[in-house]
Amino acid sequence: MTSRRMPVDRDPVEPGPDRPLTILVDGEPVAGTVGQTIAGVLLAAGRREWRTTSAGGAPRGVFCGIGVCFDCLVDVNGLRDVRACLRRARDGDVVVRQGEPEVVA
Amino acid sequence: MRHVVVVGAGPAGLAAARAAVEAGARVTLLDAGDGLGGQYWRHLPDTRPAGREHVLHHRWETFRELGDALRAHPAVTVVPSAQVWSLERPGGGVRLNVLVGEPDGVGRDALALEPDALVLATGAHDRTLPFPGWQLPGVYSAGAAQALAKGERVAVGRRVVVAGAGPFLLPVASSLLQTGATVVGVHEAGRIGTLARGWLNRPWELAGAAGKAGELAGYIAELIRHRVPWRPGEAVVAAHGDGQVESVTVARLNERWAPIPGTERQVEADAVCVSHGFTPRLELAVAAGCALTPSRFVMVDDAQATSVPGVWAAGEITGIAGADAALAEGTVAGTAAAGGDTRTATARAAGRAVSRARAFAARIESAHGVRGGWVSWLRDDTVVCRCEETTYGRVREVVELTGSHETRSVKLTSRAGLGPCQARMCGRTLEELLGDTAPPGVDRRPLVVPVRLGDLASLPSSHPHPTASHPTGDQT
Ligand SMILES: Cc1cc2nc3c(=O)[nH]c(=O)nc-3n(C[C@H](O)[C@H](O)[C@H](O)COP(=O)(O)OP(=O)(O)OC[C@H]3O[C@@H](n4cnc5c(N)ncnc54)[C@H](O)[C@@H]3O)c2cc1C
Ligand code: FES
Prior knowledge:
- The structure holds 2 protein chains of 2 kinds.
- By secondary structure, chain A is mainly beta.
- Chain A has 1 helix and 8 strands; from the N terminus they run βββαβββββ.
- Chain A has one helix at 38-44; strands spanning 4-5, 20-25, 28-33, 51-52, 59-60, 73-76, 79-83, 94-96.
- In chain A, strand 6 and strand 7 form a beta hairpin.
- The N and C termini of chain A lie far apart (37 Å).
- In chain A, 52% of the residues are buried.
- Chain B is an alpha/beta fold.
- Chain B folds into 3 domains: 3-125 and 279-365, 3-Layer(bba) Sandwich (FAD/NAD(P)-binding domain), CATH 3.50.50; 128-276, 3-Layer(bba) Sandwich (FAD/NAD(P)-binding domain); 378-447, no CATH class.
- Chain B is built from 13 helices and 21 strands.
- Chain B has a 5-stranded parallel sheet. Chain B has a 5-stranded parallel sheet with strand order 9-17-11-12-13. In chain B, strands 4-5-6 form a 3-stranded antiparallel sheet.
- Chain B is globular, with a radius of gyration of 22 Å.
- At the A-B interface, strand 1, helix 1, strand 5 and strand 7 of A face strand 9, helix 3 and strand 10 of B.
- The structure holds flavin-adenine dinucleotide and FE2/S2 (inorganic) cluster.
- Residues 62-65, 67-72, 83, 85 of chain A line the site of FE2/S2 (inorganic) cluster.
- The site of FE2/S2 (inorganic) cluster has 12 residues of chain A, from loops.
C-alpha cells in the first residue's frame, strides 16, 4: 500500500473518533469515515487511480487535490463527472470508474 | 446599507469580510468549499473535528477569531459550498451567478447577486511544470499533498520526494512528516547562489517579514530533525513506474534550470509532489474586466482597488506573498469596498504590511521564479496537456506545420488546453513554450467551472446561457 490515512490513535492532530461508512467502488466495498472526500476514502485505502483516459487508456487519480485539474472525475450514484477530491463521501455511495469526461470545450 | 460581496474565504477574504462589516457594510461571504479558511487554513471538516488542529497551522487562533466573529455578526451572511460560476456586467454593474450545494451535484440552489461592491479573493493554485512521467498516478502537485494531509490526514505515499521551487515546498514536507510519511528529499530548482542573491540582498527589508521568516526557519529545523536532505539546484526530471510511480530521476540544474548531463540519479519513491510556483485564479477578475499586471496578476492600487470601479481584489490573485500579506490586503480591500476610511490606524498598518509583503513577493520571484532551461528536460513523448494527452512533440509539430506561435491557434490544432480543466494545468506552460504570454491569454474563461445543463435550465430566463462556448454533453 502506498497512500494511507494517519491512524487516529497516532495522529498529533487528534481527529475525532472514526464514524465508519462504506462506499461501493466498481462493485467492491471500500471502508472510510464520515468527513472524508471520495478521493480521501480511496487514497486512504491505498487506491491511487480510478479513471482511464480515452486517448491513451492511462490510469488517473488525484493530481491537484483542490478541484482544478479534473483528473479525479468519477461517476457517483449515476452522475458522471464528479470531482472526487471535492465531494464528501456518504455511506452507500456507488462509485463507478468513468472514461473521458463529457465536459468538452 | 452598502452591500459588499466577498468571493473566497481564505485569509484575504476573511480579513476583507471583517474589515467591510466593521466599516459599516452588509457583507455576504461566498466560498466554494464547505468550510472557511481557504488553502492556508485547510483543516478537517466539522463532521470530523480535530482536538489539536493548531499542530498543522500557523496563526490558527487568528483564523478561529475571524471565523467566529463573522459567523456571529448579524450583518454578515456566510455562504459555504457556494460556487460562483460566472460574472456578468449588466448595465455596467456586476452580477455573480452562484450555485449552492454539493460540488458537481445536480439541483443546486441558484443565486444571483448584484452587490454594491465586490471583493475578489479567489487565491491561487500551484503550478507544476511537465516532465516525463508526470501523468503517472503517484505524481501529485505539492498543493494536493498539502490539501490531503491537512484536510484528510492522508499521506500521498510512504516514501515521498518533494520537488519544484519556492518556500511552499517546506510546509508541504512538514505536513507529510506529520502525516506519517518518510520524505526522501526536498529538491529546490533554484541554485544556492540565486537563492542567496534573492533572499540575502538588502536584509533589512526582511525585518518586517519576521513572522514569515520565523515560520520558514521552523520548517528547516524540522527537516534537519528528521534528517530530510534539502537540495538546492536540483529537480525531478522524470518519474518512472508500471502504472504508478516507483522511482524518479533527480538531476542537478544549471542557473537556467537546464539539467546538467551526467548528474542524473535514480531515487526510489512511491510518490512525488511537485510545484514550481502558483497561478492566480483570475476567471472572475478577467470577466469583470480588471486590468492585469505584466506578470498576470490582478492590478491593484494602494487601496486594493482594481481598474474596474466597484471591484477590489486581495490575496494571491494580486501576487504571491503568503498568508500574512493576504490578511493585510484583505483588511485594506474590505475597508475600501465598504466605503470606509483607509487612513485609519488599522488600515494604515495593514497598508504598511502590504508594502512589506510586496517586497517579500519580489524576493520569492527573484529567488525561485521559473527559468526557461527546464524545457530541455522535456522529450517528444512527454505529455504537456494532461486532459487531452497532447505531447510536447505534437505541440512542436503543430508549430512547424502551421507556422503559428499563437496559443489560441496551437490549442485548436493540437487540442492542448481544450480539455475539462480548460488549460488551468498547461495553459501557462503552453504560452511559455510558444513565447506568447500577453495577458489575458489563457486566463479568459467564460465559465469558472463546468455547469450542468440541468442547472442552467433552472436559472431565471433573463440569464444569457453561455453554452455556446461549451456545447456538448451533460455539462457545458
Ligand atoms: C493546495 C494549497 C495549499 C496551500 N497550503 C499552504 C500552506 O500550508 N502554507 C502556506 O504558507 N501557504 C500555502 N498555500 C499558499 C496559499 O495559497 C496562501 O498562502 C494563502 O492561502 C492565500 O490566501 P488567499 O486568501 O489569497 O487565497 P486562498 O486561501 O486560496 O483562498 C481562496 C478561496 O477562494 C475560493 N474560491 C476561488 N474561486 C471561487 C469561486 N469562483 N467561487 C467561490 N469560491 C471561490 C476557494 O475555494 C478558496 O477557499 C497553499 C496553496 C495551495 C493551492
Ligand atoms: S484532483 Fe484535481 S480536480 Fe480533483
